[in-house]
Amino acid sequence: MPPTHPPSLQFLNLTMPIHVRPACAVPATRCFLASSPPTMPAKKTWVASRASTARESSSVAEWAKGVSLEEWQGWGTSSSVPAMVAEIIRGFRALEQETNSSMSFGGLGGKLQGSFKVQEDIKHRALYNSLRDSEKKLQFFSARQIACRLLGSRGYLCQKCWLPMEDCMCSKLVPCSLWCGIKFWLYMHPKDFLRQNNTGKLLWQTFGSQAATLCLFGIHEHEEIMWDAFRHSGKNMVWFLYPNKSLSPKSAQDIFFEGPSTGLKDQKVVLEEKPLNFVLIDGTWSNSAAMYRRLKV
Description:
Blueprint: E1 9-14, E2 28-33, H1 48-56, H2 60-64, H3 69-74, H4 83-99, E3 105-106, E4 111-112, H5 114-130, H6 134-153, E5 182-188, H7 202-207, E6 212-216, H8 220-233, E7 238-243, E8 249-250, H9 252-256, H10 264-273, E9 276-282, H11 285-296
Parallel strand pairs: 2-7, 5-6, 5-9, 7-9
Antiparallel strand pairs: 1-2, 1-8, 3-4
């Protein structure tokens, strides 16, 4: 997520994305961080050979396996395995047989390497260009990114903290409960999924995946779960956080005490039935701009 520390929050009413079912779509209130976008910190450089060596220790047969529900949810999500991700992995296995070459991964982000990469690159570009619908192209792009990262990180990264197993920090994390009536949605770009220096993962590591839910940009199953939750809670219970300096500030406390005054007990009952949804965009500045446009359309 962009590393900003705002003094206050800002708000703007916008409509929900047009690709959800229009008959029951709910316009969502947006919440903005009142600060100018900070300069992004320099990226850490990881030694590619270290990642490659760890991957080489796993067998090719292990990489070629499909992703089970247990493995998928072990990375921090509570959804089913996305259909297109599973389909792409099956395509990898079929291409191995067709080309008589084996998958190999290395470098940052679980990237394909070697002769298999060349063949797969030709095939996936042809498939991508054959798709006429922009939504299908986005879903294919996102699913392929995630499929490669899943297979390339298997046996190398800790599933909980997304760090190399020898650098696992899970024992240093202290879980705690999120305040009743609040739900975080981490709307993450596929290029940030399983990224070692990603900090958004700390949300569900700390509060649990039900209180802080991962939603991957362009993954149909994930986004549908999020849209359904927004419709259930209603337009006044959904807030998107995104940097903006042109709107008047409003404190987070105002969110909880807008509207008719009610007792704390009544307020707790209402929030348990329809929680406040806070959506945090997790991606680079250029990628998060595309994600924000998708949310506000």
